[in-house]
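Batch manifest line 297
LIGAND: zinc ion
JOB: complex structure
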Amino acid sequence: MPEGDTIFRAARTLHRALAGQVVSRFETQYAQLARVHDDAPITGRTIEKVEARGKHLLICFSAVGLRPSPFGDPEGSATATPRLVLRTHMLMSGSWHIYRVGEPWQRSPASARIVVGTAAFVAVGFAVPIAEFVRADALEQDRAIGRLGPDVLSPDFDDAAAIARLATSTRPTVAEALLQQQAVAGIGNVYKSELLFLAGVYPFAAPADVSRAQWARLMRDAHTLLRANVVDPAETGVVSYRGLRRTTGHSNPAQRLYVYGRQGRPCRRCGTAIRMRHHGEHNRSTYWCPSCQPEPA
Ligand SMILES: [Zn+2]
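JOB STATUS: finished
ARTIFACT:
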């Protein structure tokens, strides 16, 4: 069961504590967020809902100033500020915690980037690396949200939908297709190389040339490995990410990955020297074993 899905769990925990409550406290270390708060205060708004979308956590705030004017004056709504969504993304370091008011925090207040408080609870975004306010009515057009593919960490991740998007990717190589967040959200550069190695897929093959069985293997491993690297103490609703990604099952830092970062070193399976190539639009590095991941004839 979706024990590993921390963003969903975090969103649900925050939703239960905050939904329907009025914001009494809003603090942030991000100037962009503070500016929005200055212009259209978050305090006084009602938290409508908290939800996960891909790996984004969205906190939705009501509009302010929309109370009907007692004079039936349409001017009254001219000063209204729209509903806002706080979009945050945890990457590998960030986490949202929820505390009762007065309860000690489990991480250093110095790493608190965003604090959203109600009468009973305080939600704290620790080391959250990405945060922005988006107008609720523009959310689906938001570049980060609107076109995300199915998220590998989502409990309702749809392998078939993901494979359909990947197999028809217009990216020239399977390595680039795996990083395309519009195809599948959540796979980064380290996992990309590791997943291709585990599936025995040549990284520079065209997406259309990857077999159904290979795509299925890639997606299955993506689930397993990404979830294994997510820690979720269920009781507290605290969400955190382990710093060290590993795919080999070894916790020893020198042994935790198969190919990533191992250029020139012997393959852990066959001893062939691991190769590396920079390629693609962003010149990302890809590591592979030329024996375990042979180029198709
Ligand atoms: Zn090998």
